[in-house]
Amino acid sequence: MDFLAGKTPKDLEQWLLSVGENEDYAVPLLTGFYRKKIRDIMEVKELPLALRHKMKAAFTDGYYEPSHVEVSVDGSRKYLFSAGGKGFIESVYLPEKARHTLCVSTQAGCRMGCAFCCTGQMGFRGNLSEREILNQILSVPESNQLNRIVFMGMGEPFDNCEALFRVLSILTSSWGLAFGNEKITVSTVGILPCILRFLNETKCHLALSVHSPFPEERKKWIPAENKYPLKETILAISREKVNRHRRITAEYVMMAGINDSREHLEGLIHLFHGTVFRINLIPFNSFEGSKIHPSEASAMQYFMKKLNAAGISATIRRSRGTDISAACGQLGNSVMLVRKPGLQ
Ligand code: SF4
To answer: Is any atom of ligand 1 closer than 6 Å to the C-beta of 119?
Structure first.
């Protein structure tokens, strides 16, 4: 039995032809499945009855429920999903006034090894399939309310490039979930070839993890700097014709006494002045075993004021769900604890 979740029209056209059916049924079938959220194929009335029976024998929807949920005092919720032999992964629902955001994982663990990130300390357990990525969006209880998707959960999305691009296509196509491109953000440490493909093939927003303007220091925090130097990445992105409706953000996690000095501020201004980037300042979120502390609120305000004064749009991002280890850089705690009583 195969799964429908994760399929594109091309996949189904091949299957339809292989069973002697008209390939034109692929689009109405997927429109019913994704957009109208009809999980039982027998209910997709646009298809002939005989074909529905054939499909029912060959496919199931492929969705499955989260195995655990933790609720924060601020209303955010962290969901734990099984990823088969790869262990468990997490997704975070973040409600805020009219915004209903889901932070989605693309890998079980991560092989980027960023020093400030809990997921990076877990090691890598495997890429998630299109089905496992989509399932997070379609199986959280708040699925119908979601109006923002951010690929900022566990894993480096561009290290699972093919699955990511297929999911983006399913999310944004009229035969898929018809989600607005401007409602989707993909976050990366800077895998340049995939960034360029992303800028050419999609219209979604991009967030680039910066965390230090100095290459030698950044290498310590983000080892990907060795292969994809930040400066080259910024130049390459700046050379692309970026539509003004598309948001390109530099994410800067602020760590007390580490990257919040005057030199760091000047380095950021030097790097981003005159580029398409805006800057998001994020307080560091501690996790078990971490000796780093977030920068003082006054230091973050100072950075924001000076960046804005230098003509670089900068904002401070509030951390959500820190009490349930659901904030930026904290995902993975429950995954590591998953075998403890009470979590399954
Ligand atoms: S910050 Fe992102 S890319 Fe770096 S280790 Fe964590 S999950 Fe991976």
So the answer is: yes
